[in-house]
Amino acid sequence: MQIVLVEPEIPANAGNISRTCAVTGSALHLVKPLGFSTDDRHLKRAGLDYWHHLDLHYHEKYSEVEEKYPQGRFWYLTTKGGSLYTEADFQPDDFLVFGKETAGLPQQLLQANPDRCLRVPMINDLRSLNLSNTVALVLYEALRQQGFKGMK
User: Fold this and answer.
1) Gap between the Cα atoms of 136 and 17, Å rounded
2) Which of 31, 89, 90, 113 gives 20 to 30 Å between its CA and that of 83?
């Protein structure tokens, strides 16, 4: 699986997500600008000794990801999604795209891909789950659908 973080802001979230990607064999794509340095001690502490096991890619802007992977299937996680994440039929190497913690994904990206926008159900009056929790939740559903291939 491919995890894409568009302009992530919080180093501890990125560290937790990097650890989740490492233990699941998922690639992590970080789209700039980043709200932290990849040398940040909080990022490294959250990722612990998993950082060197990570398949990590950096991109200057989101469009580079789609250009580099023209055959990729992209799913956009948003509180505005029309479908639940459990309704998607995930395939190996799908891209799960998440926005920054304070603003989510750009509106024009969501409007251009309404059939690929997914949400995690929540009580209406609350903003959202923590980004690292949401990534883990959706990623493990995708891996479950694929029978956790290659995992013990």
Assistant:
1) 7
2) 31
